[in-house]
Specification:
The complex is a heterodimer of chains A (501) and B (324).
Chain A lengths: L4 E12 L2 E12 L3 E5 L6 H9 L6 E6 L2 E2 L5 H7 L1 E4 L11 H5 L8 E2 L2 E2 L1 H14 L16 H14 L4 E5 L7 H16 L3 E5 L3 H7 L2 E6 L2 E7 L5 H9 L20 E10 L7 E6 L3 E6 L5 H8 L5 E8 L4 E2 L3 H6 L2 E4 L3 H5 L6 H6 L3 H4 L7 H14 L16 H13 L5 E5 L7 H16 L3 E6 L2 H7 L2 E6 L2 E7 L6 H8 L1
Parallel strand pairs in A: 3-10, 3-11, 6-9, 9-10, 15-20, 15-21, 18-19, 19-20
Antiparallel strand pairs in A: 1-2, 1-4, 4-5, 7-8, 11-12, 13-14, 13-16, 16-17, 21-22
Chain B lengths: L1 H32 L7 H27 L6 H19 L2 H25 L4 H20 L4 E3 L12 H25 L1 H11 L1 H6 L4 H27 L1 E3 L6 H11 L13 H20 L3 H26 L4
The chains are: A alpha/beta (501), B mainly alpha (324).
Chain lengths: 501, 324
């Protein structure tokens, strides 16, 4: 097959102050192919694509796109030239309608005299969404009435409406359920069939292996290798990513370990204020890893918040069984040794502008302060212990958290709760957006905590980690319990997916 | 690598020293422009008095702004506290009662603000703007036909302090309040919690920080500074009018910003901003007056300085948040 080059970067380099994010990378994208990009957090994947799309300039190096020298200075210029980009973060503007989001900045297309025709705009927006196979949303609805996944799909419709020649999908799928992912896969296949190009960035190895024609591995700003389809298998990719041999199995290895009968937490006929969780009941046993899975809107994330006293219950009761006390606020939850790691790390679990130290102590003032006084020595001891035991990579504990990679940020969040010596940890998507090396460390840590007798409730959208880690797995669907599974080597992913959908 | 590291540290150091450099610059510029008169003994005394009020209020305000509460009612709070304190002085003739009344009034206002910011979901700064003007109106009502409360002849029991005595009182009040605030902010959970709340309310709440309690607490800490400022105004000037402390509100705001306090609060808040900023603002005000500018021009220039500092500090903030 004759391969036609659509995009090429030569010796692309990017510095952020003293940090080298990209170190002279040569990268090619061909028409009719899905080119995968993988690497640990901070390896430079997003840097390449964001330079190509015009989000930021390169420090040095050349790019060609569609046979011409390419150096867009803004994302708008990049998109006009034919590079469409779907990113991980939320990119919709709240307070306006779906259609207005899709055509933000291009309202003048629907002018009739001095007015903008809302009707025409809505029609065109509906068409844009149908084109990507996304139906059931009213273009005149306010974007805020949509859930996160639908907003993401609106963004995708917006990008695809401009008919890009090259589409960049940057870690978008982590935020989506299976249905949303199918839509993205469909778009990528269509691009490929139309002899256009796709650059696909993901942390999910299986997803990359399933969809990509070639896979380029980056590490610390260097291009390590580019693999063809027949060279792609998980162990090889991991080896290149991490730079050393990784064991294929990184979940816990034991099966048939008995779990205590003692109930530590009881959720009794609970309905959440959002209505996503309906009349739900469950019991959590001491020392177990309880996995909770389902599609992203099955109510499991709300359940996590409710158990930590974060949200108000509409009906029902959540009880810390050993003390008999009801959990009504984060303060009561924490009094009984609860810890909570939110799904939304940057917006809920961390203060990004604060230092590593400030973040790590932020849940443990009562443990660190003697009376009213919090001595620098006590703070330092507390923080150093967490940084060391979790091997958080940083220039110093005085560094702002916002400059850390995703994996290290998540370690800081873990440190915050482990430092408190929590008995019951509620983890909502603990490995989301975290690279393999850190993931493995997290799983080991969770297993160690289990062995130390801690109770862990792991809510996740990733079935493999739920299967790999849980003693017991609850699957939620539409706010109710859809199935319960016990740890077993023979437990089959497909069987669970059937229950989920 | 080590070279790169050291430049980074230096840059951070300069960032931290910027408010001090600003203060020195303002002093140097106006010393030159006034031919040294800025630093004459009389003017130093004059400036020292003005610094007291601004600094006491600004230092306490670091807690409030740190949490993320933009408080425009501080000038009003000083006025209200001073008027009621002065009236109490006239009635009772007791310096102790005067101080207690100042504190009670100011804490009462703080509780209102605290409860409002904790429980009522209206943008807080709008509330404080309204509160500020409501307070001024109430003061006018309370004072009735009088425009000024005089302590001069009415109260002989409250002594008139000479300059040396006044200076000692000033220094003791300021030093004690500054050190207590510094301690609370840096060596107790209060300051740390305040900074985390200012940085990310959701995260602070999820870390188990009782935000309602913190709102009230930070206002009360700030209220003590307000009360001390009001008290010092009473015993120094012995006349409190409806125009007293008129510029304190904006002075404090400018002081915090030029002192290096992020306007939206959060983890980079620092107590020193209140003190350094108050010094800078007072030197600026005094210098501009001595150069011979009219009040109107001084207001305009203060406005420009304020905007420029906010702009520059937000520039460096944006630069740091570039995607990587």
């Amino acid at each position: 097959m004759a391969q036609e080059l659509i995009f090429e970067a030569k010796n692309l380099t990017k510095h952020f102050g003293p940090t080298v994010a990209l170190n002279g990378v040569d990268f090619k994208v061909y028409r009719g192919q899905i080119t995968g990009l993988i690497g640990e957090n901070g390896s430079g994947k997003s840097t390449i694509t964001s330079i190509a799309a015009g989000m930021q300039p390169a420090t040095s190096g050349e790019m060609t796109f569609l046979g011409k020298a390419h150096s867009p200075s803004t994302m708008i210029e990049g998109s006009k030239l034919g590079i469409g980009m779907i990113v991980q973060e939320q990119g919709t503007v709240s307070g306006i309608t779906v259609a207005e989001n899709i055509f933000a900045g291009e309202e003048s297309r629907f002018r009739s005299g001095p007015f903008i025709s809302k009707r025409k705009m809505n029609q065109e927006a509906r068409k844009a969404m149908e084109d990507i196979g996304f139906t059931g949303v009213d273009p005149a609805a306010y974007i805020d009435t949509l859930d996160m996944q639908s907003r993401k799909l609106v963004e995708i419709a917006k990008v695809m409406y401009n008919k890009p020649e090259m589409l960049v999908v940057d870690e978008t799928t982590t935020a989506l359920s299976q249905h949303g992912r199918e839509i993205i896969y469909g778009i990528m296949r269509k691009m490929k069939e139309d002899n256009k190009a796709v650059v696909f960035i993901s942390h999910d190895l299986q997803e990359l292996i399933d969809t990509c024609d070639t896979l380029t591995v980056l590490r610390d700003g260097d291009l390590i290798t580019t693999l063809d389809r027949d060279q792609m298998d998980e162990d090889t990719i991991k080896k290149y990513m991490v730079g050393r041999e990784m064991k294929g199995d990184y979940y816990r290895a034991d099966y048939g370990t008995p779990v205590s009968e003692e109930v530590v937490l009881e959720v009794d006929k609970v309905t959440s204020g959002s209505g996503l969780l309906m009349n739900f009941s469950m019991k959590v046993h001491r020392g177990e890893i309880l996995g909770i899975g389902g599609l992203s809107h099955c109510g499991m994330h709300e359940l996590g918040k409710l158990m930590f006293g974060e949200d108000k219950l509409l009906t029902g009761k959540i009880t810390h069984v050993p003390s008999g006390e009801a959990i009504t606020s984060t303060q009561t939850a924490m009094k009984h040794g609860f810890g909570y790691v939110s799904k939304n790390r940057d917006t809920e679990s961390l203060v990004l502008t604060a230092t590593i130290q400030d973040n790590i102590i932020s849940a443990s003032y009562d443990k660190i302060a003697k009376g009213l006084v919090m001595t620098p020595k006590a703070v330092k001891e507390f923080v150093d212990e967490q940084v060391e035991s979790l091997s958080i990579k940083c220039a110093g504990v005085g560094q702002d958290v916002q400059y850390l990679s995703g994996g290290n940020k998540q370690k800081v969040v873990f440190g915050k709760w482990i430092g408190r010596n929590c008995d019951i940890l509620i983890l909502d998507c603990p490995t989301r957006g975290v690279d393999i090396g850190v993931k493995a460390a997290m799983y080991q840590l969770i297993d160690q905590m289990r062995k130390a007798g801690k109770t862990i409730i792991m809510i996740s959208e990733e079935l493999p980690e739920l299967l790999g880690m849980s003693d017991r797995l609850l699957i939620l669907k539409d706010g109710a319990l859809a199935g319960e599974f016990f740890r077993s080597e023979t437990l089959d992913e497909n069987h669970i997916i059937e229950v989920m959908i | 690598m080590s070279e790169k590291k050291s430049t980074k540290i230096n840059l951070g150091g300069i960032g931290k020293l910027a408010p001090l450099i600003g203060l020195v610059l303002v002093i140097l510029i106006f010393t030159a422009l006034t031919g040294g008169k800025l630093l004459s003994v009389t003017n130093l005394q004059n400036m020292a008095n003005q610094v007291m009020v601004t600094a006491l209020v600004a230092i306490g305000a670091v807690f409030v702004y740190g949490v993320g509460n933009f408080d425009m009612s501080l000038g009003g709070a000083v006025l209200f506290s001073a008027v009621l304190g002065a009236m109490a002085a006239v009635r009772s003739g007791s310096i102790f009662v005067t101080l207690v009344v100042c504190i009670l009034v100011s804490v009462a206002i703080a509780l209102i603000k605290g409860i409002f910011s904790a429980y009522i979901e209206v943008p807080f700064f709008i509330f404080t703007i309204v509160l500020g003007s409501v307070i001024s109106s109430i003061v006018l009502v309370i004072m009735g036909s009088e425009t000024t409360v005089y302590l001069k002849d009415a109260v002989r029991e409250i002594p008139t302090f000479n300059f040396t005595q006044m200076t000692i009182i000033n220094v003791v009040f300021l030093a004690v309040y500054f050190l207590v605030c510094l301690f609370l902010f840096n060596y107790t959970p209060i300051g740390s919690k305040a900074k985390m709340m200012g940085g990310n309310k959701v995260s602070a709440k999820q870390s188990g920080i009782n935000d309602k309690k913190m709102h009230v607490l930070t206002f009360v800490i700030s209220a003590i500074g307000v009360a001390l400022a009001a008290f010092i105004l009473i015993i120094r000037t012995r006349t409190i009018g409806s125009q007293t402390a008129g510029s304190v509100g904006t002075d404090v705001l400018i002081a915090l910003v030029v002192g290096g306090m992020p306007i939206s609060g959060g983890p980079k808040s620092k107590i020193s901003a209140g003190l350094v900023g108050a010094l800078t603002v007072v030197v600026l005000n005094s210098g501009l007056t001595m150069v011979g500018l009219s009040t109107a021009w001084i207001q305009a220039i203060r406005g420009v300085v304020f905007i420029v500092v906010v702009l520059v500090s937000s520039f460096s903030y944006r630069g740091k948040l570039l995607p990587r």
